[in-house]
Design goal:
This protein has a domain of 205 residues. 70% of the residues lie in helices and 1% in strands. Helix 1 packs across helix 6, helix 2 packs antiparallel against helix 7 and helix 8 runs antiparallel to helix 9. The longest helix has 50 residues. InterPro entries: Gly_transporter.
């Protein structure tokens, strides 16, 4: 087991990733860019451009933000040509890639894990904080797809509700960071990072685990606060009953009665509930009145506009009448002058 660990500082050297692994990840990302170009009916140059964005965009964002060392796509002599050619190949042979869509999906998540490990490692070597290392890893892993969606005028896919994708990169980057600082050899840490990324993606698809969509807890908090305000000071036995609120959900208090309520307490609680019901009814009536008044004002405004147009005509009709009146006044004036002469 000692061969899997190292006593060297994790910031001592950059991860020496084999070049063929880097190029394989670039090819996969660029191929997805070319397929997107065929779906959007773009031309050959669009396929090459999207191929370079998807294959090299994440590393470009990382290097521009960090400004440490060289830019990968400019330093490597094969990065840009390979990405452009892969995008064009996917453009011409899109049917072949769609037939092996499962294989390409597996290779895609593998490339995300590899990119995440390389981005996180570069931030670790630069001495950045834990959060910054995670950010660099995630941007390297999914930044290319994000740039693709932005250039196409869409909301980036990683920001939409769906199965886990960016979260896989985030958690796998955290796993890589922790394993490296525990002293694990970086090559083994990369394998673990890719495995975590693939397992999370598989679990998300297998059990339909999705990112949470919009949730508004404001009505629930407001309604529960109103119920708490009804408590009497010093009354430890007061129980907030469950009821269906006007917002469409139920509210239940956390305190349970410690003893049976007396007749007086029951009567008092009944009066409080009746007052709350009356208050809710008044609020609903006021809201309904406001809505009806607003609708009446809109209806009156529409009738007033229609009546004015019926009496005076539309603006286009008035302009036409003024024009005809001007034409009629001209000849009549001329004829009068002729008779007078």
């Amino acid at each position: 087991m000692e061969s899997f660990f190292t006593s060297l500082n994790p910031q001592f050297s950059v991860l020496a990733m084999p070049q063929w692994i880097d190029m394989a990840a670039v090819v996969v990302g660029a191929a997805f860019g070319g397929l997107t170009a065929t779906e959007r009916k773009l031309d050959l140059f669009g396929a090459a451009g999207l191929g370079m964005l998807c294959g090299l965009g994440g590393g470009l964002i990382r290097d521009m933000i960090m400004q440490r060392g060289t830019v990968f796509m400019l330093d490597s002599p094969w990065a840009i040509p390979v990405a452009a050619v892969a995008g064009m190949v996917a453009f011409f042979f899109s049917g072949l890639f769609r037939r092996i869509d499962r294989i390409t999906a597996v290779v895609d998540i593998l490339s995300v894990g590899i990119y995440t490990a390389t981005g996180t490692d570069k931030a670790v070597v630069a001495g950045l904080t834990f959060v910054a290392c995670l950010l660099m890893g995630v941007l390297t892993g999914v930044g290319g797809g994000m740039l693709r969606d932005i250039f196409l005028g869409d909301v980036p896919q990683i920001f939409r509700p769906g199965n886990l994708y960016a979260c896989c990169a985030l958690l796998s980057g955290a796993a890589y960071y922790g394993l490296v600082y525990m002293g694990l050899v970086k090559g083994v840490a990369v394998v673990a990072c890719v495995a975590v990324c693939c397992l999370l993606r598989w679990a998300s698809l297998r059990y339909n685990i999705q990112t949470p969509s919009q949730v508004d807890l404001t009505p629930r908090v407001i309604d529960y606060t109103r119920r708490l305000k009804a408590r009497q000071p010093g009354d430890v036995s007061y129980h907030i009953p469950y009821r269906a609120s006007r917002y469409g959900h139920g509210v239940r208090g956390s305190q349970e009665p410690t003893r049976p309520l007396t007749v007086a307490e029951q009567a008092r609680h009944k009066r409080v509930e009746e007052q709350e019901r009356a208050q809710l009814k008044d609020e609903l009536k006021a809201e309904i009145k406001e809505e009806l008044a607003a609708e009446e004002r809109l209806a009156d405004a529409g009738q007033a506009t229609g009546s004015a147009e019926a009496i005076f005509g539309t603006p286009e009709t008035m302009d036409r009448l003024e024009h005809r009146r001007g034409e009629g006044d001209g000849p009549s004036d001329g004829g009068t002058d002729g008779k007078g002469a």
